[in-house]
Amino acid sequence: MKPCPRCAEQIQDAAVVCRFCGHDFQGVERKTPKAPSRGQWVGMTGAVLLAMGAFAPLVSAPMLGTINYVRNGNGDGVVILVIAAIALAVCA
Predict the structure, then answer these.
(1) pTM higher than 0.85 for the full model?
(2) CA–CA distance from 20 to each of 2, 28, 36, 59, 76 (Å)?
(3) Which structural domain, as residue segments, surrounds residue 19?
């Protein structure tokens, strides 16, 4: 048994990679993917809600039907979807 130089956990003498931290003793480092932080989750959730809101009805009237950002034809929905895509890309 020998200690890993990176995390100091005891590993087998013949180990090529530390099973605790992924340190490679042959020089190639295996990186484990990092989980998104709480702020990233909040940002991604906000971006998805913003994109869904572009399709949500703003006004619902019996004679007119529903009016939303995408269906009114002014291009407002496209702007909102672009902003949501940029926000999602920044958070990821």
Answers:
(1) no
(2) 13, 16, 20, 56, 50
(3) 1-32
